[in-house]
TrEMBL record:
Name of the featured protein: Lipoprotein
PROSITE patterns linked: PROKAR_LIPOPROTEIN
Species of the source: Corallococcus aberystwythensis
Domain of life, source organism: Bacteria
Length: 126
């Protein structure tokens, strides 16, 4: 009896099952947790649903022992933003706009001649 097909079938089953472990965008959840969906995207449990959060910065999304870190330094207008970022501003990647987190989405709130982060706050020069 040839065992190669059985071994191949087991291997294919392993790869199919290995992608089924974590939550996905739109799945239901409890609490206010965060997880990394992949290297460039986190998921936030918000109002009972996993929502995607872009992590466009060079550090991407990293799961540490006690937290999830999402580098939002290069996030763009209309990207999702976390509950703890509500009302806070970030600079657009090109420094020409101030983006503010409003109802879970980064919204352009000002045009800038330059924008920079000073003391953990985005400062827009008109």
């Amino acid at each position: 009896m040839n065992r190669l097909p059985l071994a191949l079938l087991s291997l294919v089953g392993f790869f199919l099952l290995s992608g089924c472990g974590g939550p996905g965008s739109g799945d239901s959840c409890d609490g206010g947790d965060y997880v990394c969906q992949d290297d460039a995207q986190a998921l936030e449990c918000r109002n009972g649903t996993w929502r995607p959060l872009a992590c466009r910065g060079p550090l991407g999304c990293r799961e540490l022992a006690d937290s999830v870190r999402c580098d939002t330094s290069l996030n763009q207008e209309n990207d999702g933003c976390a509950t703890d970022a509500e009302g806070k501003g970030v600079c657009s990647p090109n420094g020409a706009a101030l983006l503010t987190c409003q109802q879970g989405v980064l919204v352009k709130t000002a045009d800038c001649s330059s924008c920079a982060v000073q003391d953990a706050q985005a400062v827009c020069q008109p």
